[in-house]
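Dear colleagues,

I hope this message finds you well. In preparation for our joint manuscript, I am sending the DUF1405 domain-containing protein (Paenibacillus pseudetheri) sequence together with its predicted structure, so that both groups work from identical material. I would be grateful if you could confirm receipt.
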Amino acid sequence: MSVLDKLFKHRGIIWLLFIVNLLGTLYGYIWYGNQLEFTAANFPLWLLPFVPDSPTASLFFTLALLLMLFPPKSYTGNNVRELIEALAVVTSVKYGIWAVSMIFAGGYQGDILVWKDWMLVVSHLGMAVEALIYARFFSFRKMIPLALFWTLANDMLDYSYGIYPWLPSVLNDDVTQVQYFTMALTLFSVIVAWLFSSRQRPVDSIYQFKNRF
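The corresponding structure tokens are as follows:
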């Protein structure tokens, strides 16, 4: 095992990433507050969980980290863990890339990028990178079809009902192209998740430190 692998699997690092991702997830849901209120007022309430795409991806990854720290013991628990891991990697890669792409596409068409845009670029790139780093510590290949189904269903709802994340105003006339890009990115993210995943869960060195934190 490499030094970097030992570092990323150390409980102290996982706890740090868990806290950072938890705070980022909460901030993300707050960021979507206006769109959630608009959706609740104008669409069926069952659509609300499909509105905040990036925070939900971050939530999946946060839960995956928590399950690294406290792995389930039962067969059912391990299946749930693997499903969360699959959703975490697929959606984090997808929406990490998607958000950065939309920000730069808006900038290319004349939208003025401010510090919040650059903050979002850094945070969303971080989502994709950390998901790929930890994918090889997960074992979720059998759950990738379910993750694909969830993510494609989310795409269909986003663009059928118009609940996709609000775009820079300069992209409002490019929604069809954004839809095609989004669905292609779903397939790309699934392929990447498959390539980066492990067939078998590695022996987690973090268990060696379970009594230290």
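For the figure legend, we might mention the following. The two ends are 22 Å apart (CA to CA). Helices lie at 3-8, 11-31, 33-42, 53-69, 75-108, 115-135, 144-161, 175-196.

With kind regards,
E.M.
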